[in-house]
Amino acid sequence: MTATANHIQAVVATLRELDFGDVPPASARAAELMDPEVSDATV
Length: 43
Known about the structure:
The protein is mostly helical and 43 residues long. The protein has one domain. The chain has 2 helices and no strands. It has helices at residues 2-17, 26-34. The N and C termini lie far apart (48 Å).
């Protein structure tokens, strides 16, 4: 149990260090994949 908690804390710490910049959330990409007619606001 302790090993799992330590691993989760290490992953969270790593994710906090990453700079995702202007990457849209995965849900936006999933909607685009499900419905190709969904327009991209950046176009």
